[in-house]
C-alpha cells in the first residue's frame, strides 16, 4: 500500500484523515510538452521546470535616461533591463520575462522618470539550484553600469516587497540657493546661513503627521481616502560643497507617497523659505479647495530605502531568513551612489542649471485656490523645467522621445504573411495540396478586394 493511502485515526473528531503528503512530492514540479520542431514521435522532449523560491533583490540604479522603474512598452525602464538581464542569466524564462507576474515579480516603489534609487527592493521567484552569490554576478554581467544588484536574500513564500513595506524614505538633493530669501539673489555663489537653515527645518516639520495631500499630487480629490498620507519624519542635514556649489539633502520618511507628492512638498517649502508665501499656506493645502502648489524639478529626487520592520521582527531571526536591513552592503551602496547618482545630479545641475531656471518661474505662482496660468514658454524655458500642474499631469511627447527604444535594423524581423506565414508556423511542414489551395484562396481574396475598390470608386464618382 502506498503512503498516500495510509489513514490515521482522528483523535478529535473520531474519524479518519489522510496522512500529509511528503514535502518532496509537493515540490516536484514537472510538465511535459511536445517539441514543435520534432518531426517524429521519438524526438518528443521532456521539459522539467526548475524549482523556484521567493527572493528579495536589492537594487541600486541611476535613473538618468530611463522612464521610471515600472515597465512601459516601447520605452527604456529599469524593470525591463532587469528582467532582460535575468533572462540572459538563465534565471528567468521567456514567458516570465514577458509576463513577470508568473514568477510573482513585484517592486517596492515605482520611481518616476529620471528618479534614482540607492536601495530599491524587488521580490521574485528564482531557481533554487543557483547559489545566491552566483545569481548576483550573473545578473550584473548583463546590466549596464547604471544598474546594480547589490544583494539577494531568501524570503518567505508569501513575501511581497510592496505589501510588506512599512515605510519608504526618499531624499531630495539641491543647491542651497533654492532656499535663499527673495531679497538675496539666488546665484551659485550663495551660501545658506544658520538662520535660513533653522527656518527651513521649521517649515519642513509642518508636514509631519497625517494630512490630506490631495493638493500635492495630480487627479486626486480631497474626498478620496487615499489622499491621506502619514509623514513620519522630514528633516535636512548640514550643507556641503561639491564642484563649486553648496548642496543640501532633505530626507522624508513616510508610509507611502503619491505621484509628485515629494516634489510638491519641497517646491512649496522653497517658496516659503524664499518669502513668496507664508507658512500658513501649508495648513490651507490640507483643506478641500484646490491650491496652486509648485512642483520642484525631478532632478535630485532619490529613493533611499524601503523599510521592512514588521517583516524583520517576525522572520528576521527565525534561523532561516535574514533581515532586510542591508547593513553588509552599506559601503558598496555608498560607493555606487557617489559614482553614479550624486555625481550625475551635480553634473546635470551645473550643466543644465535646471534649478536656477525653475526658480525664475516660482514668482508666477499665486498659491491661491484658483487655477494657475503660466505662460507656455516663459523666458524661453521648456515645459519640463517650468514645473507647473500641467507638467505634473501630462507628459510632453517630445520629452518622452529621449526614453524611446530605437529599433535596431539588424534585429528587425521581416513581416511575413500568406503562405510564408503558414510555413513559418508549421516550420515548413505543409503539403503541396495545402499550399495549392491556400494560393487559390489568396487569389480569390485579392480579386474580391480589387472588385470592392472598383465599386467604391464608382460610388465616389456618382
Brief descriptors of the model:
single chain, 462 residues, 10-stranded mixed beta sheet, two-stranded antiparallel sheet, 15 helices, 19% strand, globular, PsdUridine_synth_cat_dom_sf, PsdUridine_synth_TruA_C, PsdUridine_synth_TruA, tRNA processing, RNA binding
Describe the structure.
With 462 residues, the chain is an alpha+beta fold. It contains 15 helices and 14 strands. The chain has helices spanning 23-27, 78-88, 94-98, 132-141, 194-205, 261-273, 280-285, 309-315, 330-352, 354-361, 383-386, 389-393, 397-400, 418-425, 432-461, and strands at residues 7-9, 16-18, 30-32, 46-48, 52-61, 106-107, 116-127, 147-154, 167-175, 209-212, 228-236, 240-242, 245-254, 301-307. The strands form three sheets. Strands 5, 6, 7, 8, 9, 10, 11, 12, 13 and 14 form a ten-stranded mixed β-sheet that branches. Strand 1 (7-9) and strand 2 form a beta hairpin. Helix 2 (78-88) crosses helix 4 (132-141) and helix 5 (194-205) packs across helix 6. The longest helix has 30 residues, at 432-461. The protein is globular, with a radius of gyration of 29 Å.
